[in-house]
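The data are quoted verbatim for reference:
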Amino acid sequence: VIVCALVLGSVAVLFRGLQFWSFDPVAAQVAGLPTGVLHYVFTGLLSATVVVSIQAVGILLVIAMLVTPGATALLLTRRLAPMMAVAALIGAVSGVGGLYGSYHLDVASGPAIVLVASAIFVMTLMLAPSRGMLWQRWAHRRQHQQSLDDDVLKDALLAEREDGLLPDAALLGQRLGLAGDATRRSLARLARAGRLHHPGGRISLTSEAVS
């Protein structure tokens, strides 16, 4: 508790200086900050944290607990202060969850804590908004569908207005080189968005699509 209060108090008092120094030491030195003092203060706080954490997870797993919560928080926010708060929350949840898991599963507490932290990181890596792997894949798929829908809509307008054709799914698929299923799915999305109608197979554009 004493070391925790010391570390948190020091970070709160020196936050702006530590933030500036950690991102750009040269600019911080030019601005007149005591970068040497900040370096030794940061090293001392880190050392104190490691010494206390060894009692919880062991000397080797301390590195995982220093890195994993911060890496997880980096996937959720880019601002330093919220990132520190999120990392601390993840560390606390990992500690409590790991201790409960080690008790009920009769395993060592240190590895259990690190496994919980690692599981949180993996889930965040997959599901984090904007930066998660599944989220990015979903966004890429939506972007691809949007581009395809725009191409279908433009070609339908071109076929009707300039070529004098009656556009349908087969014609648009042939003109754009698309498979029949891809064309029909695109037309269904455009119909749900209110940009066209295709009763009986014939496509008619709405005023919203034309504008």
Remarks:
- The beta strands are 196-197, 204-205.
- The longest strand covers residues 196-197.
- The chain has a mean pLDDT of 83.
